[in-house]
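Subject: for your reference before the review

Hello V.,

The reviewers asked for a structural picture of the protein, and I figured it would be easier to keep everything in one thread rather than splitting it across files. Below is the amino acid sequence we used in the manuscript, unchanged from the supplementary table.
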Amino acid sequence: MRRTLFLTLYLPSFVLAFGTGMLVPVLPLYARSFGASYGMIGLALASQGIGNLIGDIPAGILLGRMGHKRAMLAGIGSLSLAVFAMAWAQSTLHLIALGLVAGLGTAMWNISRHAYMTDSILVHERGRATAAFGGFNRIGMFSGPAVGGTLATVFGLRFPFGVYGAVAILALVAVAMFVTDTGERVVIHRGGIWGHTNHLATVVRKHYRVLGSAGMAQLLAQMVRSGRGIVVPLYAADIVGLNVTQIGWIVTLSAAIDMAMFYPAGVIMDRFGRKYSSVPSFALQALGMALIPFTFSFGTLLAATLVIGFGNGLGSGTMLTLGSDLAPKESMGEFLGVWRLIGDVGQSGAPMAVGGIADALSLPLATFAIAGAGLGAALALAFFVPETLRPHKAKT
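And here is what came back from the structure prediction:
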């Protein structure tokens, strides 16, 4: 089972996360090389996330028609081809358009592999499997930037995009060779798109309570996770006065402790329950975020970010596991499409919230707001979301 998961999920996810990580230091400079304004550069960076948001619901619907394997291949193929084509972009508008296509592919990949995990992993092993999945993603994202920066320095800014397309072939081959559709496809509803839309509306109406409670927890959870990516560098540079090298070390050390926690997180989820991992995870992230406005040096800011990293690592795979536990078998694609949409809204909204509050008030107050989101996630998970681990239940 572990070998199968490695080949069908962990290896493709690591490869794609590594490729995405390679582009983190490159994409902003590549967009700037076309003479773009800061606003256009920001839009280029946000375009994949926008495409992801647009694609979440359609991807959930299409999953039922295509099945796991074809949907996974379509997602990886669209994502990798769009990024590969960025190597030949001639303007920032080209980058934005290709980023939207990459986002649509990302949505299809995210939802199809989430459904595949849900359908093929036993409930009492799901926490460890999804935590390991999160761990491989973190390792890929952690190792990619240094490689991407080096390749761009030696061969030029366009080169890492071509490398991304090349390494993505490994993910495509692994899925093509080893993934099998384990579950029945969702019934194709009559009436074309209207039939699917009506079914989606039915799914939302039927599960509105759990989407309201667990969905709000998911939204707030993704806000605190995404928020640290903008709060920490800005606070370090603008308030504490650290240089780029010092900021890099803070981010790296926090990510290292984050990665180290994925296995314990999975064991806790499967042995004691999902809440025993998720509630402390977001409470600790809220605590670490709330400590940031009181930091004044490299050491104090590092300590706060290590708390955040430990908390985030403790929550590795928690939202994936919760979505899998809650997804109805007969409407898995539609449910997971809505579930991903809610989380992606939180992930995309955090940077805008930080920027808006910081501009209107101050960066420390924006940091407290993100800490509040983490505390809200912990409280929602503790008091409004049921424990989804069911002993002796073999499958969802």
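For the response letter, the relevant points are probably these. The chain has 16 helices and no strands. Residues 191-396 form a domain with the Growth Hormone; Chain: A; fold (CATH 1.20.1250.20).

Happy to draft the paragraph if you're swamped.

O.
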